[in-house]
Amino acid sequence: MSGRRTKPPRAIKTPKVVRRYCMTDPAAELTDGVILQHIPDNTRVIDLGCGDGRLLERLREERKARVLGVEWDLEQVLGTVRRGVAVIQADLDHRLPDIPSNSFDVAVLSQTLQQVRRPKTLLVEMLRIAQRALVVIPNFGYWRIRLQVLRYGRAPVTEELPYEWYNTPNLHFMTMTDVCDLAAQLGIHVRKIIPLINGRAVENAWAPNLRAQNVFYVLERPEAGTVATLEASSPAVDLRDFGE
User: Fold this and answer.
1) Looking at domain 28-142+170-242, what is its CATH homologous superfamily?
2) Helix, strand, or coil here: 97?
3) pLDDT value at residue 10
4) SS (HEC) of 118-139
5) Is the separation of the CB atoms in 220 and 130 below 8 Å?
6) Is the pLDDT of residue 235 over 70?
């Protein structure tokens, strides 16, 4: 028998049920706090993939916001209703055209972009229905993810991404810089990028694409025209700072 050592089975327990558009966020308190900091009082807010309405309830109570959630999973929809928050049960891949343009001041998309079939279309739609988009994504450029692929040659599993390749709700895998590149292609202005590193929001972090588990973006449409029809333009943030 060979004396070669083999890597032991993964110790991370995977969820029994995987639901699209309501992926568990282990840094939910941090994420919600960062989002709240970027939403003024008395604002019209729509949360796409709102889960059980936790964030919208806080926005209504703490920011006096007028809120609406969009969620596909029935159990999460009922949870939102129990919080007294208005919600539409809809598939983000199909129903946004039913929402009139300029209906909201802010559209939120937290831990959801990587789960939809057409993320490019969804970003364009967000900035059709709202003037500003707040987006949070898991960063697949995080160093632990890179190390797992390099060292073990296996699909990575982390605390932020606790799924095996065969049961993950994530359809797309993007890094911090990938989202910036897509925004530039669409002519979307990247007003702010905040890496979320080890439980903290760290602005102006060094090597953020390598160190950030999650990333928060503030996106805005150009002042004139429609995002979908504009040529790519230089974003407000210098994207060369995020190339690690």
Assistant:
1) Vaccinia Virus protein VP39 (3.40.50.150)
2) helix
3) 53
4) CHHHHHHHHHHHEEEEEEEEEC
5) no
6) no
Enter the DSSP assignment of 223. S
Per-domain boundaries in the chain: 28-142+170-242
Q: Are strands 104-110 and 130-138 parallel, antiparallel or unpaired?
A: parallel
Binned at pLDDT 50, 70 and 90, residue 3 comes out as low
Both tokens of residue 164?
A: 């095996």
Strands 200-201 and 189-197: what pairing?
Answer: antiparallel
For residue 168, the tally of other CB atoms under 10 A from its CB is 19
Query: What is the value of pTM for the model shown?
Result: 0.80
Amino acid at 203: E
Q: Output the CA angle 213-107-169, nearest 5 degrees.
A: 45
Confidence of residue 26 (pLDDT cuts 50, 70, 90): low
Q: Please, are residues 65 and 43 in contact by the beta-carbon 8 Å criterion?
A: yes
| H-run or E-run covering 143 | helix 143-152
Q: Which residues contact 25 (CB under 8 A, 6 or more apart)?
A: 31, 110, 111, 136, 160, 214
